[in-house]
Structures are given as structure tokens and as C-alpha cells.
């Protein structure tokens, strides 16, 4: 069976990979957007923290025998806690300054983290054993869908919509949105805004780590895994704009799929297609598809 | 983003001071090879110093943080190396070709990037540079991972034989000093003043009738062009154009040099470039720890040392005098 001369097996295979990549783009850009909303900082360390999440899961399994399911909970908490320390000791000193200093600081932190991990683990990857529950695949008739990949897509959608729900539909989220608009006023109402900022950074970092744990069984766990991802995610953020949570989710998944399809129809451009789309969006709608200029 | 020192100081006296300092710097660099400093190290540092000065024009005086300047350095390097090796162009034409290529790329990248401000500007330039990286990774003429090797240095204007290390060195020094004075001239021209006004308060500059976008674009293009000049010269010095020069780590490195030396100061990027290149030379045997140390310098600079070496010295001098 062929579609436009491409075997359906290959087409759906790439589509699946695209959806998986899109799931990671969505979770990463979501974390960036949440952090940016409250801290006004672009967290360059996000890629390194995603890598830390994957390594944390790998450590827990290899050294402590703690499996995948506990890692899903523990790794984001552990990495999130390091995020809290970073925010308290360093980022909190920069809020009065130009936002660009936050970018420079987190860039430096990303270099440190990547350098340390590369020193100890080299550039080659460590494999993460797939949990037994996920061995095998579903036969959908037109293609085989590995169980773990199906899980990643479902779980990332749950995570994304969970985040959306917390921010848009709960009391905590309303405080958060209010503090994004006007921190001084929210503080005057008795909300501890500095603590909220700290926890928000921790939560955003935790999201990156969670994505890292989910990525560990698919990609090999290696120190460079976050470095290239973060640049693509920046382009995703520029395309989507950071104004809306749902926008970030849609853009992430959509661009993953576009990238997957490019791999089928014009493989040479698959690395660059997201950047080309960014250029086109900048020409037509500079604020991003879902963004508002701020 | 970095505050310049007060403009109230007598401008003529300051200009004299800067010119005297430039003369001292040039004299020191001219005799350095005879004092036992390895000329190839000096040439490398000078290329990066030019690169950092060009970058500083944008961040220090225009307030625009580009995280993708490696694309100009690398593009010019590839074009210059290709022209010199495959087309057999003389060095002056090859350098010119590289610089023009970087300038054209600067026109396109600048027009796109200035559509957004602040943090988005940084992300867009980074993404554009990554796009260029993937393009050069796949384009056949760059020879991928190998790069363009054994680029002939040739004879400058048919007279100066650049394969002599010292001849090459003095040509690099001359280009650097000329570009340095050019940047100094731009910063202190009416154009530079308007640029600073836009950095400080863009809506106000617009309300005064200045077309902010045009000024920012022109600053971006000049910066790209001079970065290209640095890249083209660097390709001839090392007789090599490779992917390292277009990688995002290179964009980060030039930010670091400028930050360490002092953003918005005239001499800061030069000091920063020499410090970082010297450090890398010294730590060459330590592998990935260089990355860790680089990152640590970033963190320390941002947290405790935002004015950079030259900025702190100038502030200390002003305190002592005042």
C-alpha cells in the first residue's frame, strides 16, 4: 500500500516518531513558557535539566534498583529540587536586572552541567532498559505501534493537559496568572510571591526532568541529549509564542509531526524544517502563532 | 544593557586617552612576537578579539544580544577558504568575498531577528545559526566534518607572501587595528549615539523621529560584516574552515569574551578575547573541564562581575579620581 509513492509503513513510522518528538517539544516548551511567565527568564538550562532527568532515572535503576515508575515521580522531584537551589542562590539575584542576564547565567549553568556529565560519562550513550510491561507492540493493521511509544504519547498529553488544568482552572493557577500580570499587587494581597516564583521554577525544571525520564528508554541517555533539543525548542517557542499554554502544546506536537513528515518526503531538510517554519512565521506573524507582543 | 561610563567627561580628553591606549596596544602587539609570544597564538587571539569587538558593537552599544554570531564567522570562513582554494583567488579577494557573504547573511538574519525584541531576539539568532550549521553540515562544498583543509594563504596584493608566519601576523594586526578604530569611530559617531539612545529607551528614540528598526538593522549588518572579516582572516591563518566555527558553542564563546572583558567598553572585548584564548590554550589538556570552567566564568561574571574586567577597572579609576 502506497501514499504518494511512499510505503504506508514508512509514512506512519515517521509520523509516530514525529509525534514522539512533538511530545517532547510540547513538554519542554511548556516548562519554558511557565518559567518565562513568572520569572521573565528564558531558562537555557532546560536542556541540561532534561538530560539530568534521564540520567537520574538511569542512576536510580542501575545503582539503586529503582524502576521506571518510581523514577517518573522521583527524578522530577530530585531535579526540581536542584532547580529550587539554583533559583534561591542565583536567579533570585537577577530579577532587578535586564532579562538577558538570566539567559547568560542559565547558559553558563548548562555548560557546567553538560561538561561535568561529559567528563564522567563521555559522549557515548548509556542504554536504559525498557520496563517489561512495555515489551512488544500493538498491531494496528496498517502498522505496529510499540507499546512504550504509545505510552509516551498518552502520558505526555496527560502531563500537558494536567499543566494546562492547574494553570487555567485552579485557584493556585489563578494566583500564578495574577502574579504574572502584577506581582506587586498579588503580594499586597498576602500571597508569598517569592516562594511562588521559586516553586514555579522548580516545577518547570521538574517538567523538563519528567520529559527526560520518558525519553530515556527511547533515546540513549547521554550528556549531549539536551543541548541540541533546547535550540529546536527555542524555535518552537518563537513559532508558538509564549502567550498561551494550549498554543505551546499544539505547536509542539504540530511541529513534531511536520518534522516527521519532512523526513519522509524530503529527508535533507528534516533538521532545518522547524527553523524554516520559524522564519516564515516571523515574516507573517512576528509575535508567534499564539503569542501576544509583550 | 551594560551602562556606558558617564558621557559628561570631556570627550576630547577621552578620545585622546583612547587613541593613546590604542597606540600602546598596537605597539605591544607589534613587538610581542619578539618577546617570545607564539605568533599563531597572537593571530588566533586577534581574530577572536575582532570577532568580540564586532559582537560588542551590537550588545554593548545597541543592547541586542545575538546568540548566533558564529554563523557570520563560519560563513565568511567557508566562503573565503573556498574562494582561495577552489577558485584560486588571491587572499585580498578571498577575504573580501567572505566578508561580503557574511554581510549578506547579516542583512537577511538581521531583518528577521529585529522583528522581535529582547529574549526572543536571542532565541531567533540562535535558531538561525543552528539552521546554518545544519546547512553547512550537509552542503557538499564544506566537506562536512573534515572542513576545507589546506587553504593556501597566497600573496597579498601579489607582493606580501603570507605563508611567512610573521608577514601573516602583521597583516592580521593591521586588519585588526583598522577594524578596531573603525568600530571606535562608529560608536562615537552620531549613528552610535542614536544607537545608544535606542538601547536606553526605544519608544522615546522613536518619538524623537528616529527609525529605530533601521538603526538596529544597520548595526546588526555592520556587526555581521566585521564578524565575517574576522572569520575570513581566521580561515587564512589556520588554513582551515570547519564546522567548529558555525557551532552554537562558538556563539556562546564570543558572548563570554565580551562579558568577561566588559560589555559596552571599547577595550573590553579585546581583553576578554585574549583572556579566554589564553585560558583555553593553557587548559587544552583538560578535555571537557574547559567547558565547565567556561560555564563557571559565565556564572561568576553574571552574578558578581557584570561590568567585566575593563568595566571594573574603569569604575575603580573613576572612584579613585572622584
Total number of distinct structural domains of chain A: 1
CATH fold-level name of chain A: ABC transporter involved in vitamin B12 uptake, BtuC
Computed structural class of chain B? mainly alpha
Query: Which strands sit side by side, in order, in the main sheet of chain B?
Result: 1-2
Task: Provide the residue-averaged pLDDT of chain B.
Answer: 89
- SSE-based structural type of chain A: mainly alpha
End-to-end separation of chain B in angstroms reads 24 Å
- Biggest interchain interface, per-side counts: A-B, 42 and 41 residues
Order of helices and strands of chain B: HHHHHEEHHHHHHHH
Helical region count of chain A?
A: 11
Radius of gyration of CA atoms of chain B, rounded to a whole number:
19 Å
Biggest sheet statistics of chain B: 2 strands, antiparallel
End-to-end C-alpha gap of chain A = 49 Å
The main sheet of chain A comes to: 2 strands, antiparallel
Helix proportion range of chain A: over 70%
Could you tell me the number of beta strands of chain A? Answer: 4
Query: Quaternary arrangement of the chains shown?
Result: heterodimer
What's this model, at a glance?
The complex is a heterodimer of chains A (294) and B (322). Chain A has 294 residues and is mainly alpha-helical.
Question: Can you describe this structure?
Answer:
The complex is a heterodimer of chains A (294) and B (322). The model of chain A has no long low-confidence stretch (mean pLDDT 88). Chain A is mainly alpha-helical. A two-stranded antiparallel sheet of chain A has the order 1-2. Chain A has one domain (2-284): ABC transporter involved in vitamin B12 uptake, BtuC. Chain A is 71% helix and 3% strand. Chain A has helices at residues 8-39, 46-64, 68-89, 99-121, 147-169, 171-181, 183-188, 193-215, 225-240, 245-265, 273-284, and strands at 2-3, 6-7, 137-139, 144-146. Helices cover 72% and strands 1% of the residues of chain B. In chain B, a hairpin with a 3-residue loop joins strand 1 and strand 2 (160-161). The longest helix of chain B is centred in the last third of the chain and has 27 residues, at 212-238. Chain B is globular, with a radius of gyration of 19 Å. Chain B has helices spanning 11-31, 39-62, 70-85, 91-113, 118-138, 165-187, 190-200, 202-207, 212-238, 248-261, 268-282, 289-304, 308-321; strands at residues 155-156, 160-161. Chain B has one domain.
Amino acid at each position: 500500500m502506497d501514499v504518494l509513492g511512499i510505503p504506508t509503513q514508512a509514512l506512519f513510522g515517521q509520523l509516530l516518531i514525529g509525534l514522539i518528538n512533538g511530545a517532547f517539544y510540547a513538554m519542554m516548551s511548556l516548562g519554558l513558557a511557565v518559567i518565562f511567565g513568572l520569572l521573565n527568564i528564558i531558562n537555557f538550562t532546560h536542556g541540561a535539566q532534561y538530560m539530568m532527568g534521564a540520567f537520574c532515572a538511569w542512576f536510580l535503576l542501575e545503582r539503586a534498583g529503582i524502576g521506571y515508575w518510581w523514577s517518573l515521580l522521583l527524578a522530577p522531584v530530585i531535579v526540581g529540587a536542584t532547580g529550587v537551589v539554583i533559583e534561591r542562590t542565583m536567579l533570585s539575584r537577577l530579577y532587578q536586572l535586564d532579562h538577558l542576564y538570566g539567559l547568560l547565567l542559565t547558559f553558563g549553568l548548562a555548560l557546567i552541567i553538560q561538561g561535568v556529565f561529559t567528563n564522567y560519562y563521555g559522549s557515548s550513550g548509556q542504554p536504559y532498559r525498557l520496563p517489561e510491561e512495555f515489551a512488544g507492540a500493538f498491531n494496528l493493521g496498517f502498522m505496529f505501534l510499540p507499546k512504550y511509544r504509545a505510552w509516551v504519547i498518552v502520558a505526555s498529553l496527560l502531563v500537558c493537559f494536567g499543566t494546562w488544568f492547574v494553570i487555567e482552572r485552579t485557584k493556585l493557577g489563578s494566583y500564578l496568572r495574577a502574579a504574572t500580570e502584577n506581582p506587586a499587587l498579588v503580594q499586597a494581597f498576602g500571597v508569598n510571591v517569592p516562594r511562588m516564583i521559586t516553586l514555579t521554577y522548580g516545577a518547570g525544571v521538574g517538567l523538563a526532568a519528567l520529559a527526560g525520564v520518558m525519553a530515556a528508554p527511547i533515546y540513549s541517555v547521554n550528556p549531549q541529549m539536551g543541548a541540541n533539543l533546547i535550540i529546536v525548542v527555542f524555535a518552537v517557542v518563537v513559532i508558538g509564542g509564549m502567550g498561551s499554554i494550549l498554543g505551546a502544546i499544539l505547536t509542539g506536537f504540530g511541529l513534531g509531526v511536520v518534522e516527521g513528515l519532512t523526513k519522509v518526503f524530503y529527508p535533507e531538510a528534516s533538521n532545518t524544517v522547524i527553523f524554516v517554519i520559524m522564519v516564515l512565521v516571523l515574516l507573517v506573524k512576528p509575535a508567534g502563532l499564539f503569542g501576544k507582543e509583550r | 544593557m551594560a551602562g556606558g561610563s558617564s558621557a559628561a567627561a570631556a570627550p576630547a580628553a577621552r578620545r585622546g586617552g583612547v587613541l593613546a591606549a590604542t597606540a600602546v596596544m598596537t605597539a605591544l602587539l607589534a613587538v610581542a612576537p619578539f618577546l617570545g609570544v607564539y605568533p599563531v597564538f597572537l593571530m588566533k587571539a586577534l581574530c577572536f578579539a575582532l570577532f568580540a569587538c564586532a559582537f560588542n558593537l551590537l550588545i554593548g552599544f545597541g543592547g541586542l544580544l545575538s546568540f548566533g554570531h558564529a554563523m557570520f564567522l563560519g560563513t565568511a570562513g567557508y566562503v573565503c577558504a573556498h574562494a582561495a582554494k577552489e577558485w584560486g583567488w588571491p587572499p585580498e579577494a578571498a577575504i573580501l568575498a567572505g566578508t561580503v557573504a557574511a554581510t549578506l547573511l547579516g542583512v537577511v538574519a538581521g531583518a528577521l531577528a529585529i522583528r522581535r525584541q529582547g529574549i526572543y531576539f536571542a532565541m531567533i539568532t540562535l535558531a538561525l545559526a543552528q539552521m546554518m550549521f545544519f546547512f553547512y553540515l550537509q552542503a557538499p562544498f564544506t566537506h562536512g566534518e573534515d572542513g576545507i583543509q589546506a587553504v593556501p594563504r597566497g600573496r597579498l596584493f601579489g607582493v606580501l607572501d603570507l605563508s611567512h608566519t610573521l608577514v601573516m601576523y602583521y597583516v592580521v594586526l593591521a586588519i585588526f587595528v583598522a577594524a578596531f578604530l573603525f568600530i571606535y569611530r562608529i560608536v562615537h559617531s552620531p549613528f552610535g549615539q542614536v544607537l545608544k539612545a535606542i538601547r536606553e529607551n526605544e519608544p522615546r528614540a522613536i518619538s524623537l523621529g528616529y527609525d529605530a528598526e533601521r538603526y538596529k538593522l544597520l548595526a546588526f549588518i555592520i556587526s555581521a560584516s566585521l564578524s565575517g572579516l574576522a572569520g575570513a582572516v581566521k580561515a587564512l591563518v589556520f588554513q582551515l574552515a570547519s564546522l567548529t566555527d558555525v557551532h552554537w558553542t562558538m556563539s556562546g564563546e564570543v558572548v563570554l569574551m565580551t562579558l568577561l572583558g566588559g560589555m559596552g567598553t571599547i577595550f573590553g572585548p579585546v581583553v576578554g578575547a585574549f583572556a579566554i584564548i589564553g585560558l583555553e590554550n593553557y587548559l587544552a589538556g583538560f578535555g571537557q573541564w574547559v567547558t565547565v570552567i567556561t560555564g563557571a566564568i559565565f556564572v561568576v561574571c553574571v552574578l558578581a562581575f557584570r561590568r567585566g574586567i575593563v568595566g571594573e577597572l574603569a569604575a575603580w579609576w573613576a572612584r579613585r579620581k572622584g
